[in-house]
Fold:
Amino acid sequence: MADARPKLPELAVNRPFMSAFLAEDPPCLALGMVEEGENRCALLALRLDRALPQQVSAVGFSFGHALFGSGTWEVVHFAFAFYGFATYNVLVNPSDPVAQTVLVYRRTRSS
Structure:
């Protein structure tokens, strides 16, 4: 009997990106892009400082974001709330070229 589950596409990970991400002390966040075939998508990779219990990962998490600032500064805030476990807050400088690439990326399709 054939497996009825759809086969997931293979994803290639940039080795220097992943090495740099894993070299950082957790908790940390990495911003990047993922390509699968002709599709390009933004990537937010969160590395926690402790393992998620199975009962926490089973129910998912709440994700929020906001832009804070004034006439002289701005920052992007991301919040990852794992129900009954922990909340991780991340601040990203939107002036950073990598952040601009990931956060401003828009997928365009030709008609």
